[in-house]
Every structure is written in structure tokens, then in C-alpha cells.
């Protein structure tokens, strides 16, 4: 991510700066870094007025004015404490009077458009801007990840995200989820929506037997561990006695992969997907702010539903993901 600034009341067109950032990229962080680097070149005891289109940066500046007086708990919940501490350190050292003024983004303001252009130029710089915080009085302790990345955001949330990624990585490395790992690499699964769906309770606010069955189905379907004959044969070899042929088509081994493509079951799955697409259209017609024709075409041409309306088309990977209760990106 890039950032940039220029001085509007100096005619020299070369008086500007831009750079790139790494780790925890966000538009707010870019605006904060632009403010910080602009203050570095300000003269001693000067009055500086900075125009920015980021209200978050302005609010963050005022909230961080008294970092040294707040409790450690509140301090660790503030994002970009190292940058804010540095900004206030520069202001105190150079005795700067700083005023931040909000301007409307994308309002055809020539000065703001110039700053956006510089930010785009800074994004492609190969060496990102880095800072050392050894002499910052208000920033005595910093938490580093892997002895490299300063955790400059809410520590609890950040550590929670790291743990979630570790959990997801361990989950993806399971042998039953090799195809899900491939789909994830292809960015076919919306994991945010999928996580919400996995935790959704459609049976009411309280846990009950029906909800427990739903959770069991979600776990087994998403991990390819439904009680198909090949799984039952592994668990109860004397009972099944290697008779694992599909009970419907009688021609293939009944596996978790086969049940979604069984020629006897596929017409029923196709019909269910048509009904699901029609229900989706009804909901979108009611709540979406789009033309009815656009909604109908959008739903029918989605990779998840398209095959259901074309008898000569096979089941798509997106449809298989939905059958296994993963939300694909084309649905979100």
C-alpha cells in the first residue's frame, strides 16, 4: 500500500514525498504515515495545516493525544500506537502547531487528487518505509511477531486472527480436505460467510437436539466424513463385508465424492438447485435494489446454479461446495 503528500502553497513541483507500507495495510495507516512523514520536514515552531480525506486519521489523532496517561489496557486497544506516539513526539520536539482539516474524497479537488496520485506512485516502490522507535518516550514497549513485525493494532484481536489462521491452516492440511485446500488457493470459498453459516442456529436461540444434528451434518458434510458405505466398511468391516456398491446406481463405490454425482441422485439435486435459485430470486426481488431482469440473469448464470438449468452441463465445483455447505465467492 502506498501513501503520499505534497505542499500546496509552495510552487516547486518537486516538493512532495511518497512511499510504500508493509504489514497490516489499511487506508488509515497510509494516511497516518503521510501525516508523520510530512511533519518530519516541517520547520521548528511552525504552524502546519494538513488537509486529509480520512476522518479516521483525524479522530485517531485527537484520541491519541494523551497516550502516556491512559491505562495499558486501553493503550493496547488503540490501532497504530507506534505511529501516533511518533507523531506526537515530533510535534513536541519541533514545537509544531498542527491542524487537521477534513476534505471530501473524490470531489475533484486538484490538491487531493494529486495526493491520491502520489499514493499510487508510492505503492510500487520496492523498499517500504520503516521506522525505529527506540527514542520515542511514549512508546516504551512493542510486541513483535516472529521478531520482525510490530503488532501495531489491538493485540487481542490480532492474536485471535493469527490463531484463526493457524487453525485454518491445520484444518486445510487434513487429508479429507485436499480439494477444499485447492479451492481455497483458487479463492473460490468465502470463508467469512462460510464461518457465519457454520455458526448459524436456525432452530432458535438455544441449543437443542435438532441444532446438534445440524452441526453434526455440517461437520460431516464439510469434511467428507458422511456415513457412506466406504466409511462404514472401514469402521465395521465385518458388518459391511466390502459390499460398498452404491445402493442407488449399483455401479460405483459409494463414497462422499460419489453421492453428489450419482446418476440416480443427480436429477433430484438438479431440481433442488433450481428451486434454490428460484427462492434466491424471490428474496432478491423483494430486498435488492436492482432491476428484476438483472437479478434473474445474475442468479441463473452463477456458476453455482447455471448447471441446473442446462441439462447437458455437469455439476460444477461451486455447486459441490454448496452441497458440502461452503459458501462460494460467486454467491457473496
Give keywords:
mainly alpha, Nucleotidyltransferase, domain 5, elongated
Structure overview:
This protein is mainly alpha-helical and 332 residues long. It has 14 helices and six strands. The protein has a two-stranded antiparallel sheet with strand order 1-2. A two-stranded parallel sheet has the order 3-4. Strand 5 and strand 6 form a beta hairpin. Helix 1 runs parallel beside helix 4 and helix 12 packs antiparallel against helix 13.
For the biggest sheet, the summary is:
2 strands, antiparallel
Class per helix and strand makeup? mainly alpha
Distance between the termini: 25 Å
Mean pLDDT: 86
SS element count, helices? 14
Shape: elongated
Give the total of beta strands: 6
What percentage of residues falls in helices of 4 or more residues? 40-55%
Strand arrangement across the biggest beta sheet: 1-2
**Global Rg:** 28 Å
CATH topology category name of the largest domain: Nucleotidyltransferase, domain 5
Q: Pick out the low-confidence regions.
A: none
The portion of residues forming beta strands comes to 5-15%
Order of helical and strand elements: EEHEHHHEHEEHHHHHHHHH
The appropriate CATH architecture of the largest domain is 2-Layer Sandwich
Number of domains: 2
Report the CATH C-level class of the largest domain.
Alpha Beta
